[in-house]
Amino acid sequence: MLQTKTIDGLLLRDMVLAGAALLDKNREKVDALNVFPVPDGDTGTNMSLTMASATKELSQKEYLNASEAADALAKGALRGARGNSGVITSQLYRGFARALDGTEKITPPQFAQALKGGAETAYKAMMKPKEGTILTVARVIAEEAVKQAEKAPDDYDALFDVILSVGENILKKTQQMLPALTQAGVVDAGGRGLLYIYTGYASVLRGETIPEEHAEAAEPGTVVFEDNHDAIAELKFAYCTEFTIQNLYPEIVEEDIDQLRRRLNRIGDSVNVEGDLSLVKVHAHTNNPGKALEFGLTLGELTNLKVDNMVQERREKMGEGAPAVRNAEPPKDFGIVAVSLGEGFNQIFTDLAVDQIVEGGQTMNPSIEDIGAAIGRINAKCVFVLPNNGNVILAANQAAELTEGKKVLVIPTKNVAMGIAAAVAFQGDVSAEDNAKRMDEAAQRVRTGTVTYAVRDSEMDGLHIHQGDMIGLYNGKIVVTGSDVHDVTFDLMKKIVTDDDELITVYFGKDVAEKDAQTLTDEIADEFGDCDVEMHSGGQPLYYYLISVE
Q: Which value, to the nearest 10 degrees, does the dihedral of the CA atoms of residues 424, 429, 430, 433 take?
């Protein structure tokens, strides 16, 4: 039975910490609800990392005032938001905080109205909101919560009974609301993640203990790394990144921990990896904290995430503004940021004079903060952003809105092939608006096929898919299945290429031998003799081939 009639800042913090902990504990379950049976489902991961950023901000100090705690929560969530699900989560908290402006202690009616404000803000943030998603779950919960709070304005117990029961009911209905969910036989992943968060809230209000492994304090016996950031003479790597890996996967061995240490050393310095198969504590300085987290996720669950901007820390302590070297040079007219994953793709974008590359994409969506930081590092009047993933576009748009002092234009590229076409179309001697139009048109002319493997049994558009099958996707839709990568890729091309096409570009992934890619490319060239056919190493994980057709 819930005894409290109001929620202050401290109690709100504990509720959010519990919600974040429960979500993180069930992150893989949420990831597994990905509609398509492809191996890069990341809704749970994106929401969990967004919540980690929120809890970090919320834990900076003890907020007694609920409004101040909600503001910190919203600020942290927005900064760390990644992927569509993470951005929507941040918008839920943004509206939640706005509704609580000036509120010292939250009553049940105020809490319900704040949930409603969050849902309304999230809907407004989406260009074309779809029902059957996390938006629907948030909205229906809020609507019913408002009704319940009006009936019992002093009863948090009854309010959360409604929140959780209504949430479960509407979550089940999402499977019938979206055809894609119906075909896949799953409920909406974001909605499930949101219910984990709200369940965590209720656990605190009911006096239940937060699982020990998700507590904020360091576990007894774990290593606490201490850094004197001011003692570093020249900062080659800007971000001090720390996290703990728990619940390591059963197949992980000691060599995997050693490999993690080696991988971190390739992207940074001051690397410390301590622990065993029960718990691993990680510390590193790097310019790609997202990449460090991605490496950690290959071993197990992440907790106690902490990323500090050492450059900013130094500026604040020394009373400095932006680096003098930046102010010494006049800004150029244009700059480009591209999201990319894979050494081959990174090199291609570099060769195309892209100024900043943000690591991420299919397997690890960059946060709003990651994209914003890349924009900030470019001394230009106007910066074009190439998200190169449908799940990154929303975060890129938010980063653009938050950027001050320069124009930021997001070209809504949904994959790296579209991003490459956009970068090729860029011209330095035309206006920003003309460039945006040229780049977008070039990207939209590209049709893409991808080949990966199925992670579970499924049925999509009449295709019976079994776990382990090779699957070919055309513009995000599964159109070919089979047992052989080569055959599936070749069959996919037959469905994509038309008589009007002129150029086919084959990008092979890190798990494909170059000789095998060359054999496939030669066969494609023979089959489609009227097209120019090129081959490049993309180096992308999980996807054997990404093929563009223009």
A: 70
> In the predicted model, is pLDDT for residue 217 greater than 70?
no
Tell me the HSE value of 532 on the side-chain side, using a 13 A CA sphere.
4
Residue 1 has pLDDT above 60, yes or no: no
Confidence of residue 39 (pLDDT cuts 50, 70, 90): low
pLDDT at residue number 215: 35
Q: Looking at 249-359, which runs of residues are DSSP E strands?
A: 268-275, 279-286, 301-309, 332-340, 356-359
The C-alpha atoms of residue 331 and residue 324 are separated, in whole angstroms, by 13
- Partnered with residue 82 across adjacent β-strands are 367
pLDDT for the residue numbered 289: 85
- The size of the chain, in residues, is 550
Q: Three-class SS of residue 536?
A: strand
The reported pLDDT for the residue numbered 16 is 94
327 has a pLDDT exceeding 60: no
List of residues 6+ apart from 62 with CB closer than 8 A: 9, 10, 13
Mean pLDDT, residues 207-213? 56
Q: Residues 221-238: what's their mean pLDDT?
A: 49
**Residue 422: its pLDDT value, please?**
94
Q: At a CB cut-off of 8 Å and minimum separation 6, what does 138 contact? A: 92, 115, 118, 119, 122, 191, 194
Residue 234 CA to residue 463 CA, distance in Å, equals 57
Q: Using CB atoms within 10 A of its CB, is residue 109 exposed (0-12), middle (13-18) or buried (19+)?
A: middle
| More confidently predicted of 294 and 408 | 408
Domains of the chain are: 9-212 (1.25.40.340), 229-317 (3.30.70), 326-444 (3.40.50.510), 447-549 (3.30.1180.10)
The pairing of strands 447-453 and 268-275 is unpaired
Half-sphere exposure of 548 (CA within 13 A, CB side): 22
Between strands 332-340 and 380-386, the pairing is parallel
Query: Taking the complete model, does pTM exceed 0.85, yes or no?
Result: no
| Alpha carbons 329 and 331: distance in angstroms, whole number | 6
Pairing of strands 239-246, 279-286: antiparallel
* Partners of residue 338 on adjacent β-strands: 357, 386
* Burial class (CB within 10 angstroms; exposed 0-12, middle 13-18, buried 19+) of 272: middle
Find the helix or strand (DSSP H, E) in which 504 lies.
Answer: strand 503-508
What one-character-per-residue DSSP string does 406-451 give? SEEEE----SHHHHHHHHHH--TTS-HHHHHHHHHHHHHT-EEEEE
158/512 Cα distance (integer angstroms):
56
pLDDT at 321: 44
